[in-house]
UniProtKB/TrEMBL annotation:
Domain Palmitoyltransferase DHHC: from-to ranges: 141-267
Gene Ontology MF term list: protein-cysteine S-palmitoyltransferase activity
Official protein name in the record: Palmitoyltransferase
Family classification: Belongs to the DHHC palmitoyltransferase family.
Membrane-crossing segments per the record: 56-80, 86-105, 184-207, 227-248
Class in the EC hierarchy, top level: transferase
GO CC entries: membrane
């Protein structure tokens, strides 16, 4: 599609002219906002519920919840409730359960937040004419979802959408990690690493205590069952701690260098002005450093969420 004002190219590797802040008419480039049709809501305003219908991702997300709830069961019912020290049980129980709730909340926010999807089919003649491009300027269209690709956007074959600042697609959260949900993914990895380390510490203390006394006095379960539950918990905690700690460090490094994992792997030369270190952290987490950075409930409006009763299926995701 060509005109006297601009040229349109189908390319996967690109250096487009559209910036991350470009808008489509009166709406932002987000899932649920389509050119030429009435707006169905803005993801940035929590009016769109995003969910990827990928069988592998849904299985992995379910497994994540199961393993966290399993850890909760073992920590609470095998180690803490039978303990004779009340304050030991209370403090560790409150800490572990609070971190677990924050981890699961972060997982939900990552999974159900639009990562920064570009609307499908917005590469229309009318829209391109509305951009008022200079003669000879080139914009790039994704041939897979027929959308104009903003700067630093990449196409995800699982989400079937172009995602702004796409870092990677994570099956454990059944979603892409992109511009709008990266902060929740970072919080998810941080809280999972913390509860894994806490569970390992509690398991070590429990083993050490039970060795000095009878196992029957340490738990309401039989010695054999208790040992099996604790061994599986330790293996789970070691695997989760290793994976999430590495992923957390990788994400922080990427944010501080303003470079996504895809851009690093493809060795893309930056055509944008990089936000280094604290500027990058502020851009992802929003505002100056504060405790709100660690809060996965920030920006969540429960009233709006409860009003989302009418769903609309759009490709591989639900837009509500």
């Amino acid at each position: 599609m060509q005109s006297s004002n601009h040229r349109l190219r189908d390319m996967e590797q690109h250096h487009p002219l559209l910036s991350a802040g470009a808008d489509v008419e009166t709406g932002s480039l987000a899932a649920g906002v389509m050119v030429g049709v009435p707006h169905t809501g803005h993801t940035g305003g929590n009016r769109t519920l995003w969910f990827i219908q990928d069988s592998c991702g849904m299985v992995c997300a379910t497994m994540t919840w199961f393993l966290v709830l399993y850890a909760e069961f073992v920590v609470n019912f095998v180690m803490l409730l039978p303990a004779k020290n009340f304050w030991y049980s209370l403090l560790n129980g409150a800490t572990f359960n609070s971190l677990a709730v924050l981890a699961l909340a972060s997982h939900l926010r990552t999974m159900l937040t639009d990562p920064g999807a570009v609307p499908k089919g917005n590469a229309t003649k009318e829209y391109m004419e509305s951009l008022q491009l200079k003669p000879g300027e080139v914009i790039y269209k994704c041939p897979k979802c027929c959308s104009i690709k903003p700067e630093r956007a990449h196409h995800c074959s699982i989400c079937k959408r172009c995602i702004r600042k796409m870092d990677h697609h994570c099956p454990w959260v059944n979603n892409c990690v992109g511009e709008k949900n990266q902060r929740f993914f970072v919080l998810f990895t941080m809280y999972i690493a913390l509860i894994s380390a806490h569970a390992l510490g509690l398991s070590g203390m429990h083993f050490f205590t039970c060795i000095k006394v009878q196992w029957n006095e340490c738990s309401d379960f039989s010695p054999g069952v208790s040992v099996l539950l604790l061994i599986f918990l330790c293996l789970e905690a070691i695997l989760f701690l290793t994976f999430t700690a590495v992923m957390f460090g990788t994400q922080i490094h990427s944010i501080c260098n303003d470079e996504t994992e895809i851009e690093r792997l493809k060795n893309e030369k930056p055509t944008w002005e990089r936000r280094m270190r604290w500027d990058g952290m502020k851009a992802v987490f929003g505002g100056p450093p504060s405790l709100l950075w660690c809060n996965p409930f920030t920006g969540l409006r429960l009233r709006r969420l409860m009003l989302l009763t009418h769903g609309r299926r759009a490709g591989s995701e639900f837009s509500v």
